[in-house]
Structures are given as structure tokens and as C-alpha cells.
Write a structure and sequence with these properties.
globular, Metallo-beta-lactamase, Chain A, alpha/beta
Length: 222
């Protein structure tokens, strides 16, 4: 498996959200110029993530959101306090979630959540350049309407948000969820990837497409 992309994982907040910092290898902590990095999702209490970026002389270029439920966006205000102009990118179908507590599932919490608006959107089939590598956007709705997978073919790696987990799949009982769309996304956009593709989900341990194809009990119908 190619290994030119460094992926640092942070498990943030009480909801144990997997958030990631991506940058090219190697990173030189004492370099004069900072190394560009990208953030994938921003959960509650992102202090460890922020400290990692600063300690390693990294320069954030954007936050890429797999979707906009509260546990994946709650850290955006803290991140923006450190980098006020940092771009926030999300699928075009989910921009309203960032400023609507009903949509981002925070309306019934003690402090409903409104976070900074997206500065740009992406859609299915778009390609972003991240750390000098091509990142293909695959629209994977179902858990939420704008769920997106960030697929690095050259690295055999897919960031899938809450669409697919090790031995499980994303919830589809939220007001904007769609169970049929979820399984269609998994079948058409994820299980079509090579078996050795590393799957980095929004919660829980990493897995591979091949493992989930063989043993995930929820995928027998796909």
C-alpha cells in the first residue's frame, strides 16, 4: 500500500468521534516553512488536534467535512479561533446543517450548535488536491443527505464518515436519514472499491473494504 500521506487520528469528545489530520511525509518539526495539512471532521474538544498541528509546525489549508452532524462539526469554532480564515468544505447538500441545530441534531441539547458557514462546497465526482494527492469525492448519502467519502486512490484509503463501520453501518433513523440510500451508497460507492482499501470511519477502528464485504453482518443484503 502506498504510504506518502501521513494520517494522524484523534478520538474527540464524549461521542468518540474520529477526526484526522493529513499531511505529506515527512514532516520536519523545525522546518522554517510550515508543512501544509488538512483536517477531516472537527469533533468536540479538539484541543489535542490543535496542539498536534502547532507542535509539528503544520499549516492548515482546509477542514473537509464528511457530514455535518454535531459530533463532526462541534470543534469548528475552536479551530477557527486559531485559524480565522481557514476554509470549511462540505458536500453541497448539507451546507444548511452547519447553522441549523435541528438539522445538525443539536437542537435538543443544552446548548444547540451553530458553527461557521462553509466557505466552499464539493459534489460527487469532484477531485480535491490534498497534500499533493488526488482526493476523489464520492457522495454517500443515507446517514445524512450530504454524506461524503474522501477517497485517495493512490493511498488505497477512504474516509467514510458515518456511512460504514467495522462490522456495522451508519444509523439511518435520524430525521434526514434514508436507509435505502445508505445501503445503496455502500453498495455502489464503497463496495466497488478494491478489497485492500483502508476504511477510516467516523467512529471506531479502521477496517478494509474486503473485510467488511466478507464479514459485516449488515451487508448481507447488498
Amino acid at each position: 500500500m502506498p504510504d506518502s500521506l501521513h494520517i494522524e487520528t484523534f478520538i474527540l469528545g464524549d461521542w468518540q468521534t474520529n477526526c484526522y489530520v493529513l499531511h505529506a511525509k515527512p514532516v520536519v518539526a523545525d522546518a522554517t516553512l510550515p508543512t501544509p495539512c488538512w483536517i477531516v471532521d472537527a469533533g468536540f474538544e479538539p484541543h489535542k488536534l490543535i496542539q498536534y498541528i502547532k507542535r509539528n509546525n503544520l499549516a492548515p489549508r482546509a477542514v473537509l467535512l464528511t457530514h455535518a452532524h454535531i459530533d463532526h462539526i462541534a470543534g469548528l469554532p475552536d479551530i477557527r479561533r486559531h485559524w480565522p480564515d481557514l476554509p470549511i468544505l462540505i458536500h453541497e447538500d448539507e451546507t444548511a446543517f452547519l447553522t441549523d441545530p435541528m438539522l445538525n441534531l443539536s437542537a435538543f441539547l443544552p446548548e444547540p450548535l451553530v458553527v461557521p458557514e462553509a466557505t466552499a462546497t464539493f459534489k460527487h465526482g469532484d477531485t480535491l488536491e490534498v497534500a499533493g494527492l488526488a482526493c476523489l469525492i464520492r457522495h454517500t448519502p443515507g446517514h445524512s443527505p450530504g454524506g461524503a467519502t474522501l477517497y485517495f486512490q493512490s493511498e488505497s484509503t477512504a474516509f467514510v464518515g458515518d456511512t460504514l463501520f467495522r462490522d456495522s453501518v451508519g444509523r439511518s433513523d435520524f430525521p434526514t436519514s434514508d436507509q435505502a440510500a445508505l445501503f445503496r451508497s455502500i453498495s455502489e460507492q464503497l463496495l466497488t472499491l478494491p478489497d485492500d482499501t483502508r476504511v477510516l470511519p467516523g467512529h471506531g477502528p479502521a477496517t478494509t473494504i474486503g473485510r467488511e464485504r466478507r464479514s459485516n453482518p449488515f451487508l448481507r443484503q447488498t
